[in-house]
Amino acid sequence: MSVSALSRWFATLLDALILLAAWLVLIITIIIGADVLLRNVGMHGLAWSGEVSEYILYLVTLASAPGLLRKGQHIRVDILLRALPARVAYVMEWMADVIGLACALYFVWYGCRVAAASYWAGAVSIKTLVLPEWWMLAMFPLAFALVAIEFVFRMHRLAGSVVGPRDEAVSAA
Fold it and tell me: How far apart are CA 23 and CA 4, in angstroms?
C-alpha cells in the first residue's frame, strides 16, 4: 500500500474521530439540558451530569486534535512564514513538524507511563462516579500517537511540495 493510500485511509479515520467528537458534544448538550429541565420541574437533577460532561470534553479534545491538525484548523500563526524567503519558510515548516513529532512522541511515552502507573496502583477517581483512573489516562497516549502519525504524513506531504510555506493544512491561507 502506498503512503498516499495510507494517508487517505488515515484521513478517513481522523474524520470519523471528528464526527465522534461532534456526537459527544451533542450528548453533553442533551445531558446538561436534561439535568436543568429535571431540576426546574422540581425533580432531582442528574447528579453525575457535570462529571460526565468533564470526561466527555476531555475525550472531545483528544478525539478531534489529530484531525484538526490535518485540516489546519489548529492554532497556527503563519504570517511570519509568508513574509520570509521561501527557502527559510520551508525549513521552518520542517522544523515545526519535527518538533511537533518529537513533542507528540514524548506525550505518548509519558502518557503510557502515567496510565500504566495508575493501572498498576489500582488508582480510582472518586467523585459522583467511581472509575478506574487509567481509563481516562489511556486515551491521552492514544490521541498523541495519532497526532504523531499525522506529523509523519505532514512531513511526507511537505517533502513533495513546492519549497516555501505550506498552503495545505492551513485554514486561513
Answer: 29
